[in-house]
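#data-curation
PF: Archiving a pair of folding outputs for the training set. Convention for this channel: one message per protein, sequence first, structure tokens after, nothing in between. First:
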Amino acid sequence: PARGSPPAAASKWVRLNVGGTYFVSTRQTLCREPKSFLCRLCCQDGPELGSDKDETGAYLIDRDPTYFGPILNYLRHGKLIINKELAEEGVLEEAEFYNIASLVRLVKERIRDNENRTSQGPVKHVYRVLQCQEEELTQMVSTMSDGWKFEQLISIGSSYNYGNEDQAEFLCVVSRELNNSTNGIVKEPSEKAKVRQLLRCIS
């Protein structure tokens, strides 16, 4: 009497042989995308695909099993997860083969985002060289605008005497990253520190 239950329970589960690697999933998972190859293969199970099965009863699919994992996981939970060692283009190829339209869109978006990030190239810096007196140094550094970073201080000696004291002069080198968001417009380090720009911007 107990022999009647296994076939009913087993019908819920589907065994796939993808390029020699076995995967087990439910018909419900594989039919998440009604128009997909996997839905037509496992849920409709008609003569349309004429799919072969191996000796264990698993559906034979002649594709790379390495890239099948992200495909199956996407059908399970709806998220695109690709291990670092896998090429996104490989996952895209499989998503297109299995005809999972929503996954194809997701992978293409990720590839496009990565290309945009790469095309920005290395980070460029803008440098300013500012001349100031010794007494202005502290104020200049403390009132520097956000994004500017102190690089180097160069003493250029005394330019003139004021009363009995020498007024030491310095060149202060500051820099900041130049990214697309600034559109090439860079704020001055400080309006309060009475400094003069001496050298041009260097990218």
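PF: Second:
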Amino acid sequence: MAQSKGTVVLAYSGGLDTSCILVWLKEQGYNVIAYLANIGQKEDFEAARKKALALGAKKVYIEDISREFVEEFIWPAVQANALYEDRYLLGTALARPCIARKLVEIAQREGAQYVAHGATG
């Protein structure tokens, strides 16, 4: 068996894109740790955990970060009236730095060399 190229913490949702990138990273020789962030969305996190493990993730983290997402990202954006095209709040865009911060924390905790995402380009 080839030596691992290192460990990657992958922002994972359980959808097609993140599942494909998980498999691709494994095929490239990386150990993959999947990270699912619960920011308040309705999702079957247990099904996503099982899928990630079945696809080859060596570990899966699922964290409820909805409180810090609201307090540290959403609330300040509402206070600043941060709107896109004067129409709607930047919810999805605001979630990215919150999730990225957690990816880095887990990478440091796990001694991972890399972080990645599988979002549609």
